[in-house]
Design a protein that fits this description.
alpha+beta, PH-domain like, six-stranded antiparallel β-sheet, 17 helices, 24 strands, repeat, calcium ion binding, cell projection, flagellum
Length: about 650
């Protein structure tokens, strides 16, 4: 498109040329928007942005046209209305106040920092009086950074007020949602805006940086003076040279503690220490040989802070003031390694030579280790409760799973089905119980006793088993030293106490006498003689009955001597009435033969309270017997003179 002709040149063909500086060829707009309304306007520029001198009015002409009108026709002109209202979101669009601030945050669980400084930017949006807090992202900080407070109107107090830009200034604290921010500075636009509104700004402050972050940014430069002794030289000189010490750990003061032996190895190549346990065969411990693995052991630590953890994975030179060396180990002294105290009582020959050549130590006398004797706790056995056999109850005191007491199998096999039987009478103040007769059986295979009461018709007492098979302990026997009744304790006339009941032995089987005579070496002479004296009158009577020969003078003499002894014993029983006894026997003997049935005789004696269970009286009854079922009561009445 050709440009207009130059000044003074006619716009004719051949008289026009192109302006090389012109780049815009669009037409100007005649429509526009004002306060949200469309309106038309005359173009002020032509094609390509060239100014049009037509349709142009000066500012004075425009003011005159807007303020004055013909007076004669329309009267005095009215004042033009003020400019239209501009809303805040239009006037302050994209106008933001920016403040630089920071806040302090406590760090309770860290050994390297107690607090943390976090820098933030506070933005105030003028168009709607909203605020937001954004923390710039710091690389490798490990903190969730970015937007801390989203954009909204931040409440100022509990009365419903919100923060305004008039409340913000430099060098002041502002609290938002319980967190206090310190505003230190603002950008130039904020400074100009606040000063234009008549606010006097405080002088800016310096931004405070996080000390831990700064420490991480700055590389720690440490200068260590090289030692005189080179580690490489130490390794080449003392490689494969190890000091060996024999130590003991005394843990007897604690519960289940004991004395345990260890071997301490000190490696001269790198000053490391290793502790190994010493195991014995069948000591009941798992074979973990290493108690402390090979490592440098700290001797003195640097003063730690309260927040420093007591257990660390790796110990560096910064935490340790002094490490263990070969000078810290000596025979006869104690050393504490990682909280456990070891007493060194001996070392090997290489260690002795090393200390003798290196430090000039010559005292290597080994210390004799004496183990503390264990205190024997006396085992208190509780008293017998009366249930079960004494040996069975005693096993409950020795084991949680009681085992049955061991039996003498040989004795059981040798004495199987061998039983000694005795006749016993119950010793009781009740007259009815004194008439009761029992059969006591002693089983030689297991030393048990059983008592059986033969039933008697019209006696009013149900007979049967009185005591099952059980071992009967003697009176006064204890749980620790229990003594039981044996066949040697069963003599004619002796008293046996069975679980609180007293029985008197009145008779026995002849098998008892035969068994004791065949095993005379196993029984006392008094027991055997008691049975012989008891069975001798019966044997004499039997021999007399079998031979049909009257009793010899010696038997009559023996009977007279026994009657005299019975009379002396019956004098102790003052309650006996001899006259009534004689009359009762004479009344029972209706035919006057002088012989009564033995059962009737014994029943009559019990009714008259005659002590038939006495040894002498029982022997007199045996001498007066005329067979198994008859008795000559006239000889018996001689013991009861009128």
């Amino acid at each position: 498109m050709s440009s207009g002709p130059g000044p003074g040149l006619p716009f004719l063909p051949g008289c026009a040329f192109r302006d090389p500086m012109k780049t815009s060829f669009h037409r100007s707009q005649t429509l526009g928007y004002k306060n949200g309304f469309a309106f038309s306007q005359l173009p002020t520029v032509g094609i390509g942005g060239e100014r049009l001198y037509v349709n142009q009015l000066s500012q004075a002409e425009l003011d005159e046209l807007s303020n004055k009108r013909p007076t004669l026709t329309y009267g005095q002109a009215k004042q033009a209305p003020p400019s239209g209202f501009i809303p805040a979101h239009v006037a302050f669009d994209k106008k933001i106040l920016k403040f630089d601030a920071y806040f302090q945050e406590d760090v309770p669980l860290s050994a390297e920092e107690h607090y943390r400084i976090r820098q933030v930017c506070i933005y105030y949006y003028l168009e709607d009086d909203s605020m937001s807090v954004i923390e710039p992202v710091v690389q490798n900080s490990g903190l969730p950074q970015g937007k801390l407070i989203r954009r909204h109107r931040v409440p100022k107090n509990d009365h419903g007020d919100h923060y305004h830009w008039k409340d913000l200034n430099r060098a002041m604290n502002i609290t938002m949602y319980g967190r206090t921010y310190r505003i230190v500075d603002c950008d130039p636009f904020t400074q100009v805006f606040l000063e234009s509104q008549g606010i006097e700004l405080n002088p800016p402050e310096k931004m405070i940086f996080d000390p831990y972050t700064e420490m991480r940014r700055m590389p720690m430069r440490k200068y260590i003076t090289p030692s005189d002794f080179d580690q490489l030289k130490q390794f080449l000189t003392y490689d494969k040279q190890v000091l060996r010490f024999y130590a003991m750990w005394d843990d007897t003061d604690s519960i289940f503690g004991e004395n345990r032996t260890y071997i301490i190895h000190y490696y001269l190549a790198d000053d490391t220490v290793e502790v190994r346990e010493v195991y014995k065969q069948n000591d009941g411990r798992d074979p973990f040989p290493i108690l402390i693995k090979r490592q440098r052991l700290p001797k003195t630590f640097v003063d730690k802070k309260k927040t420093f953890p007591s257990c660390v994975l790796e110990i560096s030179d910064q935490e340790v003031l002094e490490w263990y060396t070969a000078k810290d180990f000596a025979v006869g002294k104690s050393t504490t390694l990682l909280g456990r105290t070891f007493f060194i009582y001996d070392c090997d020959e290489f260690t002795r030579n090393f200390y003798r050549d290196k430090f000039g130590i010559t005292d290597f006398q080994p210390v004799e280790i004496k183990k503390k004797p264990l205190e024997e706790v006396p085992q208190v056995i509780p008293p017998y409760n009366g249930f079960g056999i004494l040996e069975d109850s005693l096993q409950n005191c020795f084991s949680l799973l009681p085992k049955p007491p061991r039996k003498d199998v040989i004795k059981i096999l040798e004495n199987d089905h061998k039983v000694l039987r005795y006749q016993v009478a119950l010793e009781s103040p009740n007259p009815e119980d004194r008439k009761r007769r029992f059969i006591l059986s002693y089983f030689l295979s297991d030393d048990m006793i059983s008592i059986y009461e033969p039933p008697v018709r019209n006696s009013g007492i149900i007979g049967g088993k009185y005591l099952g098979k059980a071992r009967v302990a003697k009176p006064g026997s204890t749980t620790e030293n229990a003594t039981y009744y044996e066949p040697s304790d069963f003599t004619i006339g002796s008293t046996i106490e069975v679980f609180g009941h007293r029985f008197v032995i009145t008779d026995a089987d002849e098998h008892v006498l035969n068994y004791m005579e065949s095993n005379a070496e196993s029984f006392p002479a008094a027991t055997l003689q008691s049975l012989r004296d008891h069975f001798r009158p019966r044997q004499v009577v039997k021999e007399t009955a079998n031979s049909d020969i009257p009793m010899l003078g010696t038997s009559k003499q023996e009977l007279d001597e026994l009657i005299v002894q019975v009379q002396e014993e019956l004098k102790l029983h003052n309650y006996l009435n001899n006259k009534n006894i004689r009359e009762a026997f004479l009344q029972c003997d209706k035919d006057g033969s002088g012989i009564l049935d033995k059962a009737k005789f014994l029943a009559l004696c019990d009714s008259l309270s005659v002590p038939t269970n006495a040894i002498l009286v029982n022997k007199l009854i045996d001498l007066c017997s005329c067979g198994e079922d008859k008795i000559n009561y006239r000889d018996f009445l001689r013991a009861f003179p009128s």
